[in-house]
Amino acid sequence: MAEKIAAVESLLSCFVCSETFRDPVTLSCSHSFCSSCLQKFWEQTKNKNCPICKRRSSSDYPPVNFALKELADSFAGRQKPESSERMKETKEEVVCDKHPEETKLFCEDEQRAVCPVCEFSLHQTHKVVPVEQAVRDLKEQLRSDLKSLQDKRDKYKQVEDTYNEMSQHVKKQLLSTETQIRAEFNKLHQFLKEEEESRLAALREEEEQKGKTLSREMKRIQQQMSSLSDSISAVEEELQKQQVSFLSSYKDTQSRARAQSSLSDPQLVSGALIDVAKHLGNLSFRVWEKMKDKVHFSPVILDPNTANGWLDLSDDLTSVRHGNTWQKLPDNPERYTKYSELLGSEGFSSGKHSWEVEVGDLLWIVGLAKESAEMYAEVASPKYGYWCLSHRDGKYTNSDGKTVTVQKSLQRIRVQLDYDRGEVSFYNSEDMTHIYTHRDTFTEKLLPYFYVGESDIKVCQSEIWLLTSE
């Protein structure tokens, strides 16, 4: 029996102080210590390692192991007898020392239990009810308060979950956007590499042509020099002859010499050097001009952070389609979650602007929305902050819900905003025929707006007007 007690005592003893546990805590390595002993040990060693296995603790303040605490307290005789606790509770329920019987009345005005013998006369003008009723009513109120707290906690938990989703989504956005940035720059690098090779090839080709020209001219000069050298040698030889021999042969030599002397002097050809200015002059500008033909500008960039989960955006964020699968996206405040809608990434607060949109034959809405537009509105109308052109079942309607007539089915629409004059206009881009203009007073930023109902929408390249209002 003594051995068993000793074994239990060993299991319930702290490794640091060798005493029975007081407020024991258990580390992730499963070793337990008195809470105060562990903290003192960590202060002395200046680390958070387990005193036994030296493994680092995952928590700076590990929670108390209440099961182990109850067992240790019981073993050490530190628990209070149940009868004492019960007596204390019973004593607390006694309201009056003179009349120790259990109280049965509760004063709602003073919000306390009262003695029915010596205090009753003091509460005749108060509202006094039986304790059971007061407890029932107050517990009901407390349950209501508890429900309110639980609901509030659930809302905080919901927001916490959304932030967790947003955190994970941000990491995905980082990887995806980084990949696309690298891809775009790789295209630019490839273009510059090819342009560099082309420019160097043109330089080498010119060098080869100029080299051939110089070689040809040098060969001709060398031939002339050789002929002149032969004539010089012949004249020098003629001058060395005896008189009779000289007189019989000098005439031919003299004619040959005079014929070569009458030739024009040699001239250097122009343009024999490489045209360095042609290759280097405004090089960066000319490459940039050529690069402009390789890149495209879109006046409106779609904002993926506002896109509904049914929508699929292109990598360059200039086109969108209604997908077949729902994408799990964070429920951030900017996102349209009820309908398949999205906004442009930048808005307008002044001036004139225009862009063109390619649309399909199914349900779509294009136009503008103010920054504070009602996101769950049933209708895209000015009442809710929208100025749009809509298409459904071959019918076109304006912002006021009225039908507008078009000569033929619209495939490409120009949206035109004159913010200062308060005008939003729509045109058929194919022949620039006017569809309709909505006039209003704008007081806040307007953003391009799109509703995509199982139809593709693409923002087309168009000029952005940088004109002041008339």
TrEMBL record:
Signal peptide: none annotated. GO terms for molecular function: zinc ion binding. InterPro entries: B30.2/SPRY, B30.2/SPRY_sf, Butyrophylin_SPRY, ConA-like_dom_sf, PRY, SPRY_dom, TRIM/RBCC, Znf-RING_euk. PANTHER family: E3 UBIQUITIN-PROTEIN LIGASE TRIM. SMART domains: BBOX, PRY, RING, SPRY. Residues 132-169, 193-238 form a coiled coil. Keywords: Coiled coil, Metal-binding, Zinc, Zinc-finger. The keyword Chloroplast does not apply. Residues 280-466 form the B30.2/SPRY domain. This is Tripartite motif-containing protein 35-like. Pfam families: PRY (PF13765), SPRY (PF00622), zf-B_box (PF00643), zf-RING_UBOX (PF13445). The gene is LOC114441216. Residues 91-131 form the B box-type domain. Residues 14-54 form the RING-type domain.
